[in-house]
Amino acid sequence: MRTINLFANPNEFFEERIKYPTMTAQSAIILVTALAFGGQMIGVYFTTLGMEVNHYESLIIVLSIVQMIVPLVLWPAFTLIFWGIGKAVNAQLRFKLLLRLTGWGFLPMIGAGMSLALGRYVPLRAANPCNAALVCDPAYTGTLTLLVEDLFLYIGSATSSVVFQAAFVVAVLFILLSAYLWYNAVYEASTLTRQGAFLAVAPQYWSALWCTPT
């Protein structure tokens, strides 16, 4: 079954994937999604190269790791929520099967992460970090709170850019596509009706959107 069918005919794709118990491809998708999400902070790091802002490096690394962890947590968390909602209405479904199928739904999230990373990198690269919010002084010894405030002000300065706003719209569309795939995955993996699958997935779309760093 070609991956293109995941988008062209998701129901047929998931029906076929039910036969395969492996999660190698899905795990790879999640790992790439994690890298795409972490790409935002990695991009921020590259915009500060050559500047005297070494005091922010550790914080940037930590935030990159946090952003990469988000997809790793969302996969089992969303699956557990879908499974719990199904069980609450006495639907027949298996957690492992649901986990396998919902993993495919994260494929568009790679596009969402890359879009946001690029949308933030471009305007920040065109700006001077020292004029934006960061303190470019090797002797700067600000508290952790101040460092966090400085860094988030710098990161947030990109949101007023048309480039970032366009990238955010694209990311929202990618997340919507993921929700559509989760909806079909839940429907195929359970005895839920179409309406039931939609009600199970709809709140998680907003959760995914909320978890998307902006």
TrEMBL record:
Membrane-topology descriptor: Multi-pass membrane protein
Superkingdom classification of source: Archaea
GO-annotated cellular components: membrane
UniProt xrefs under Pfam families: Yip1
Keywords: Membrane, Transmembrane, Transmembrane helix
Transmembrane segments: 27-47, 59-85, 97-118, 162-183
Intracellular or extracellular location(s): Membrane
Record-annotated Yip1 domain positions: 5-202
The protein's name: YIP1 family protein
